[in-house]
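Can you give me the bound-state structure? Components:
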Amino acid sequence: MATFEEDGARLRDRLARLAPSGCEWTARLVRQRDQSLSVRRGTVEPPRIDDDQGVMVSVAAEGGVGFAATADLSDQGLEWALHSAAAWAKRNAALALDGHLPQPADGAYESPVEVAWETESIAAKLARLREIDEILGAGDDIVDRGASLWRTQLHTTVIGSAGGRTSQRFDYLVPMLSVSASRDGDTQTRTFGGHAKVRQGGLEVLVELGFWEAGERLREEARQLAAAPNCPSERTAVVLAPDQMILQIHESIGHPLEIDRILGDERNYAGTSFVTAEMFGSYRYGSELLNVSFDPGVPGEFGSYACDDDGQAAVATPIIRNGVLLNGLGGVRSQRRAEIGGVANARSPSWNRPTIDRMANLNLEPGVSSLDALIGGVERGIYMETNRSWSIDDARNKFQFGCELGRVIRNGELAEVVKNPGYRGVSATFWRSLDGVGDRSTFEVLGTPFCGKGEPNQVIRVGHASPACRFRDIDVFGGE
Amino acid sequence: MALEERDYFFSLGQRMLEGLAGDEAVTCQLRAESSSFVRFNRGRVGQGGEVRQRQLELDLIRGSRHASGSVNLVGSLEQDLPTLRATLDTLREMRDAVGEDPHLAYNTDAAASSETEHGGELPRAEAVMDAVRRSGDADLVGVLASGEVQRGFLSSFGQRNWHSAPSFNFDWSVFSGNETAVKSGYAGNRWRAGELETRLRKSRDDLAIVQRPARAVEPGRYRVYLAPAAMEELFSILSWDGFGLRGWKTRISPFVRLHDGAAQLAESVTLSENIEDGVAAPFERSGFARPPRVALVERGVSSGHLISPRSAREFDAATNGANANESPESLDMAPGDLDAERIAETLHSGLLVSNLWYLNFSDRQACRTTGMTRFATVAVENGRVVGPVRTMRFDDSAYRALGENLVGLTQQRDWILSADTYEWRSTRSARLPGALIDDFTLTL
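Here's the bound-state model for the whole set.
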């Protein structure tokens, strides 16, 4: 069997030879290798490696488009995929919503890696994870803890019958720390990484994110929380740290602006949107301070790439400028159907799922306020850090989010720690209450490996970068 | 097809075992499926095609050291054996880099071998498309997932297990012009064309009720009826560490107080993991068999936990073949005595909630969850449906909703087959009644 690289280079010739005559096709070849290392409560869990490889072939015929996916890259496997996809195209034609099959451009991408994963042995990495797990576990009130690293290498090649070819190599790193402290029947957890501090790159990412030094701080914060009072329930100002802001951006800006949701494709599962096609170009999404961009070119951000998984070249695009909605988040097929400006974000997590509109890097641009200035401008309010709970309606409007750590803001200064901090609101009005945007010193490049959507279901990686932000007159609450 | 898969898996596994060193052991689990997916929007086909995938999950063991991983297979010995041997070499290197694992657990009892091969009849995609077309101008959106699903297990201790079942799941909703909708579905392993036509017709008939102008509801406490599909969403979030031994022992479970005996649910609440009547495989990935039924809550009192093989070692207990997350795969809630056919009358005044959506914890230790109503939620006054209500957020504790505020459960239960297709088509299911609840808190 040929190697993946050889297959990628030769695939077009083989597919052209095997394809039914005159047929228009594309193929997306994917190879992914994951390695996971984990220590939990002092025990090294078995190291893990996962290898996955396959191809999705799409064919346009008679006004329909069909797909077929297989791990079999032999001529026999490709022939099955081509003929099966062609049969599906014809089957779908009579009821087809859209018969367009975008052809890929030429493009290439490689994640920036300074210190390769392999430069440190598995044993050495596990020894360092053990050290940090021990730091997390110091104290009788620590009931659960763990430290892990999840590394992914992904190589995708998209080719088409018109001749274009994109080839992209990604290196993803997801570090994770978790520590739970229990006191008087209450358990509180602090985490690092996982849902926020993730990057493309090598082992240098762990230093940049402060992974190796985070253990003691997290443990002490979990202890403080277990002994803390509940967050008060009131309407007040909130200052949200970047690792909560990214969830706010993701759920109440990113998802509502996905063009396939606006077209209704997701109404049976992920949902619809309160945003309609007519709003683009004029709708006031937020205050004058709100500036949001699709930016696939931020080095190391989780959703950076040169081309989407349809092989369309990705360029930085303003989405919201000075609070006004300009562009949607949808690939070329959705843009054609909806007649809305979009971006190159037709994506798929693997060879076994077709592309749909997904977020990639969706970033809120920094403003001019330091964190001290944001907090200093609040007489009474709550500062919240690190998302732990997320819920929003199917139109992406009524939301309720919870954080791991809260601190009361009193007379412009951070005061006591409070547990179970949460807030609720409505997307359509929430962003208009944005009255302070942090400067570059508060700005963090973050992301998440877990965004679920689509039928059949798909989980994809997204990047978000944000400064700390302040909002006025928000409905805040705590636990029982 | 299924028999060929079975024979191929055991043949490949046998060849792999022949390459092991004398002091090595291996467990391996196969996941395989051949799936058709047809995605609809506005009664038309958005995307349609098929996926063939097979994945082998391996654990390579020497003494108490081991490494695990997975690799996908093509289906021919010529291609798969070299791939598998290369994976084993990688696992050997990784295994030798780690120390002994005190929580390692795997089944060594070859008598746990089993075979279940379900028959069935799957729909042709064309037949489903025709039925959708014949249903007229309905704004139908959803997905058909259909095909064979197989699970296999093989170990160097002589154990062999096979589980194969065809299944289909057509999950759809029908929308009205004002964006209200009715959710429905047809799932199982024996397709009846007439049944789909009947259900599509009923979707359209039910839509007439929610097409009336939706009324706003103020935040507050309401008497509500949660239909079985809404209960399934509620239990999905409560199953996040709620019923596992590890969640309880590490004090992160939302049901810590229930398992401690410091709190209980209503006497009408009896829950179990009912593998016997579900569609999940009766064995887990280390080869341990799952008992037909595991009691979790009896008459409102905690009566057991789901225990994975690793948790069993960690907390000195006996495994009951639970998955690594210790979440139910075939949750069963005992029926009550309310008649679902007369539920509006029994509710008298309040809300009938067909579905809940996007649940999460708002205070995990208090077992308080939040989420949204979705699809058909209607107001009832004096026992009569008066019209749909706008989407509302709830925020309440399961200790109240399934405890002091639980009025009753219905005699009728729905068997809900999961429509999840994340990476693989899910084999999770749940058998649940509807619940009538007083003072259910709506917040936004």
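A couple of observations. The longest strand of chain B covers residues 44-62. Chain B touches chain A through 95 residues (CB under 8 Å).
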